[in-house]
């Protein structure tokens, strides 16, 4: 399963080792460079490209050239995908807390909303436990 820690490991590697904003490698060396098989690395890089963190060119023979874009640096500086996941969890927990304070004014609706948010938070916690 690809989780935030795996994505962070690959993103940190390409950002921190690319002072000239480019990172080139042969896909056959993915295991040695990133610690993951070429198919996983390729999928993650495709995802990074789709969300605007990198531009990449894949060449015959397996060479990959990556241009690291500014949003990638910003994401790394802010703690990466793991920090985004933690922030989401904390925001959901805060929302539950605030809804609990509104419960006396609209008990039925607030109970339903609180229950849904609690289930989402619990689901995120389970996902995080499985990643470790």
Instruction: Give the strand tally.
Output: 3
Major sheet:
3 strands, antiparallel
Query: What is the residue-averaged pLDDT?
Result: 88
Indicate the percent of residues in helices.
55-70%
Structural class: alpha+beta
**CATH homologous superfamily name of the largest domain?**
Winged helix-like DNA-binding domain superfamily/Winged helix DNA-binding domain
Structure, described:
The chain is an alpha+beta fold. It folds into two domains: 4-77, Winged helix-like DNA-binding domain superfamily/Winged helix DNA-binding domain (Arc Repressor Mutant, subunit A, Orthogonal Bundle); 81-131. Helices cover 66% and strands 12% of the residues. The protein contains six helices and three strands; from the N terminus they run H-E-H-H-E-E-H-H-H. A three-stranded antiparallel sheet has the order 1-3-2. The longest helix has 25 residues, at 107-131. It is elongated, with a radius of gyration of 19 Å. The model has no long low-confidence stretch (mean pLDDT 88).
Annotate the secondary structure layout.
Layout: H1 4-16, E1 22-26, H2 30-34, H3 38-50, E2 54-58, E3 63-68, H4 70-77, H5 80-102, H6 107-131
Antiparallel strand pairs: 1-3, 2-3
Helix pairs in contact: 1-5, 5-6
In short:
With 132 residues, the protein is α+β, with helices and mostly antiparallel strands. The protein is 66% helix and 12% strand.
List keywords for this structure.
single chain, 132 residues, alpha+beta, Arc Repressor Mutant, subunit A, 2 domains, 66% helix, elongated
């Amino acid at each position: 399963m690809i989780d935030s820690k795996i994505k962070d490991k690959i993103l940190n590697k390409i950002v921190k080792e690319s002072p000239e904003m480019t990172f080139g490698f042969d896909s056959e060396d993915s295991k040695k460079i990133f610690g993951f098989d070429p198919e996983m690395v390729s999928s993650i890089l495709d995802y990074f490209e789709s969300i605007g963190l990198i531009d990449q060119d894949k060449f015959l023979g397996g060479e990959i050239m990556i241009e690291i874009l500014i949003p990638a640096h910003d994401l790394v500086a802010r703690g990466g995908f793991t920090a985004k996941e933690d922030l989401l969890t904390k925001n959901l927990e805060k929302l539950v807390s605030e809804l609990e304070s509104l419960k006396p004014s609209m008990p039925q609706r607030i109970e339903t909303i609180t229950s849904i948010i609690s289930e989402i938070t619990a689901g995120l916690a389970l996902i995080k436990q499985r990643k470790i």
